[in-house]
Write a structure and sequence with these properties.
Its EC number is 1.5.1.5, 3.5.4.9. This protein has 303 residues and is α/β, with parallel strands linked by helices. It is built from ten helices and eleven strands. Helix 1 runs parallel beside helix 10 and helix 2 crosses helix 10. The N and C termini lie far apart (41 Å). Bound molecules: nicotinamide-adenine-dinucleotide.
Length: 303
């Protein structure tokens, strides 16, 4: 039987609808307007498009949203001062510095200068620590992993007691999603295994997974026969494997593939995310959710 396709596009739209209602109520009842600033240094085309998408989303939800463009040659000192300005700005609840930064700027130093309570990307070591402790300590969840958890929960899979196998141990996907899924609580409480380039028998681990989360960045790494029949497969990988001409624009666009062979895997899995249209659309939506959470927190409201 063919797997249920978990559409990140649909789930993200659903969450944004819920957020819009929450933002409207916050404004009306509490006079609180979530504020997000995105800081862009230079004009890297990919960064420009990411920041534009984030601003569009913030605008649609009715946030107070600011796009702060800075020249490529801004000094580290000036960028740190800018971050500090927004740390102190009561209208701003979320600060996002678009990466990568130019080479003369120490990225870590800049990210670590963001007030952890406004760090809606959840990259600050304080927030990484809070995530590890879990429970009410975790103010925000990092966006892509939080999106993955939402997809699993909303697809109706039971996470409590489930064998979750995460392929990949990066700081932005593998480690945090493993941490999220092992916490005691709703939508988690799973038995988690992380596999990586040092793992001896990748196949044996994947075959045990009730929920298989793949974030390796290697197209087709996970073979269909590694998937337990009926498992929930979340394919985080986004790999450019060629180019095609867009039917809409007539211009060349990249052909994207995940880390799992989707066509074959969907005949074995119980549910699976497509690439594109799976995890991808969730990331910005979870950034918006974190900004709303931060606004509530700063207003002393239950988050
Ligand atoms: P990364 O390169 O930082 O980490 C990849 C991890 O996979 C590493 O820990 C490595 O040990 C593991 N790995 C690589 N090859 C392996 C192999 N052959 N066997 C076992 N383990 C292997 O990558 P990342 O930043 O975690 O991203 C992973 C993928 O997810 C990429 O394709 C990236 O584009 C995608 N991604 C998508 C989103 C999104 O959709 N919003 C967000 C972040 C990352």
């Amino acid at each position: 039987m063919s797997a249920k396709i978990i559409s990140g596009t649909e789930v993200a739209a659903q969450i944004r609808e819920e957020l819009k209602k929450e933002v409207d109520a916050l404004k009306e009842k509490n006079g609180v307007v979530p504020g997000l600033v995105t800081i862009l240094v230079g004009k890297n085309p990919a960064s420009v498009s990411y920041v534009t998408a984030k601003q569009k989303s913030a605008h649609e939800l009715g946030f107070y949203s600011l796009q702060d463009d800075q020249p490529e040659d801004i000094s580290e000192e000036a960028l740190l001062a800018l971050v500090d300005k927004y740390n102190k700005d009561p209208k701003i609840h979320g600060i996002l510095v678009q990466l990568p930064l130019p080479r003369h700027i120490n990225e870590k130093k800049v990210l670590n200068a963001i007030d952890p309570d406004k760090d809606v990307d959840c990259f600050h070591p304080v927030n990484v620590g809070r995530l590890m402790i879990g429970g009410s300590e975790a103010k925000f969840l990092p966006c892509t992993p939080a999106g993955i958890q939402e997809l699993i929960v909303r697809s109706g899979y039971e996470t409590s007691g489930a064998e979750v196998v995460v392929v990949g141990r990066s700081n932005i996907v593998g480690k945090p999603i493993a941490n999220i899924m092992l916490q005691k609580g709703k939508g988690a409480n799973s038995t988690v295994t992380i596999v990586h380039t040092g793992t001896k028998d990748l196949e044996a681990h994947c075959k045990r997974a009730d929920i298989l989360i793949v974030a390796a960045g290697v197209p087709g790494l996970v073979k269909p026969e590694w998937i337990k029949p009926g498992a929930c497969v979340i394919d985080v990988g986004v790999n450019r494997v060629g180019e095609k001409i867009s039917e809409k624009t007539g211009k060349p666009v990249p052909v994207l593939k995940g880390d799992v062979d989707f066509d074959a895997a969907k005949e074995i899995a119980g549910a699976i995310t497509p690439v594109p249209g799976g995890v991808g659309p969730m990331t910005i939506t979870m950034l918006m959710k974190n900004t709303v959470t931060s606004a509530k927190m700063h207003a002393g409201l239950p988050a």
